[in-house]
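User: Just a sanity check before I run the rest of the batch. Below are the structure tokens for the first item. I only need the designed sequence back.
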């Protein structure tokens, strides 16, 4: 029975960039479990698993639009160092949570630290990248 939206699926996967660099894998772990079509994974991953049969293998390449989107320059922000708590020392690569007006938060990474300012990047680390996944559908439950 092919996997359909609403099904709970279990998928083993290995992800790599166009240059062959691996970025994530379920190897050595339990398969990824999610409800197909629920938005728990990027749209292209959902689409690739839809219609697969248990035991089927598939390789799919996702353009950025079907993965984490294109990089957006408007998500790179320069903020004054004084915006950080006095006991915080921002460093390149550090993750920070930015509170949003009206509630909620977004994750960002520190990409540059100057004397008076810190540059943050709220793009997903894989934004702008095409992603290739090797998939194996392990299980489907209604």
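Assistant: Here's the designed sequence for the first item:
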């Amino acid at each position: 029975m092919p996997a359909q939206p609403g099904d709970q699926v279990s998928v083993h996967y290995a992800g790599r960039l166009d240059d062959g660099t691996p970025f994530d894998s379920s190897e050595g772990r339990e398969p990824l479990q999610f409800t197909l079509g629920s938005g728990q994974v990027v749209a292209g991953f959902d689409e690739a698993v839809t219609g697969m049969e248990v035991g089927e293998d598939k390789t799919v390449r996702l353009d950025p639009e079907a993965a984490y989107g294109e990089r957006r320059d408007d998500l790179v922000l320069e903020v004054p160092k004084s915006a950080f708590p006095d006991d915080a020392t921002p460093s390149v690569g550090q993750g920070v949570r930015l509170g949003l007006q009206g509630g909620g938060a977004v994750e960002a990474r520190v990409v540059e630290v100057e004397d008076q300012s810190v540059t943050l990047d709220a793009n997903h680390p894989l934004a702008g990248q095409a992603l290739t996944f090797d998939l194996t559908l392990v299980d489907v439950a209604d």
